[in-house]
Design brief:
The chain is α/β, with parallel strands linked by helices. It contains nine helices and eight strands.
Length: 306
């Protein structure tokens, strides 16, 4: 049974859904403000400090924030890309979640604020994330000491970074972590219907609207935008999580199966009764804390940390 504490995320998502339904013409500024509230779900991680920086991006300087565990190492890094459908959220909305993951792993996390749609459409977000990876390497961090991680759209992006680096013949990250990664941009999965009455936020119309905002003039079947269509052979190890009440459930499970069949090492956690990106409840709900602890242990071994 889901914990009482974890139900706070469902209630928050339901509140957001109700507000959006009551205002179908909600403007982009209001929508982004509504989604930014998700930072409230996570508790502030103890023993973690923050430093805001900017890095050189392909089109402009990119804001980012370091999450620095007090006792963490400096020569391993998690590059964290936030969720929000490629349209909403910032480094601030996800710094606490990334901070918990950094602390569990024992190394710094860099939360990137990439360009958002519809002002910047695909592949701008991927270009920014690949540029951030290259920037870390320029700072002296070896590619095999970098993991990419993200939630929802950010989980898609963390995976796409590895796909793009493989395509370009460049060293890939040591590992990829995806919390409820949004791989099915078209909303075709069967659990879009079977879990529709359980998922308090991610519904097919939301998925299709955000996907159309993100993709611009490209194709939703471009494998770098929609990894569902990618050849997964040769990817780094994957740690994927998904809530049992998510409409994205089967798309994540099927992606994990495809990756395993392609010879990729995959760890998959399905959390019974949990909502989209349930690790948002880090520091407040046992399910979130358990998954983050598991992800941290898994990352330590892939990054060469004891």
């Amino acid at each position: 049974m889901p914990s009482k504490e974890s139900d706070a995320l469902r209630a928050h998502f339901q509140s957001m859904s109700d507000r959006m339904a009551a205002n179908p013409q909600m403007d982009l500024v209001t929508l982004r403000g509504t989604l930014e509230e998700l930072h409230e779900r996570a508790a502030e991680p103890t023993g973690v400090t923050y430093e805001e920086i900017t890095i050189d991006g392909p089109a402009s300087e990119l804001p980012a924030i370091w999450c620095i565990p007090v006792d963490g190492t400096d020569d391993r890094v998690i590059l964290y890309t936030h969720g929000g459908g490629f349209v909403t959220n910032t480094r601030h909305s996800h710094r606490k979640l990334a901070g918990h993951l950094a602390k569990a792993t024992g190394c710094r996390a860099l939360v990137l604020e990439y360009r958002l749609a519809p002002e910047a459409t695909f592949p701008a977000q991927l270009e920014d994330a690949v540029a951030a990876f290259a920037w870390l390497v320029e700072q002296g961090i070896a590619p095999e000491h970098i993991a990419t991680a993200g939630d929802s759209a950010g989980g898609n992006l963390a995976t796409a970074v590895a796909l793009k680096l493989r395509e370009d013949g460049r060293p890939q990250p040591a590992a990829v972590v995806g919390f409820s990664p949004w791989y099915d941009l078209e909303g075709t999965g069967s659990t879009m219907d079977t879990n529709a009455d359980k998922d308090a936020f991610v519904q097919r119309p939301v998925v299709q609207h955000l996907g159309s905002q993100f993709i611009g003039d490209a194709s939703l079947q471009d494998p770098l935008a929609n990894p569902t269509y990618a050849d997964l052979a040769g990817l780094p190890p994957l740690f994927l999580t998904v809530g049992g009440h998510e409409t994205l459930l089967d798309s994540v499970e099927q992606f994990a199966d495809r990756a395993k069949n392609a010879g990729v090492e995959v760890a998959l956690e399905v959390a019974e009764g949990q909502q989209h990106v349930y690790p948002f409840m880090a520091g407040r709900a046992p399910e979130a804390d358990s998954t983050i602890a598991d992800a941290g242990r898994w990352l330590r071994s892939r990054l060469g940390l004891s």
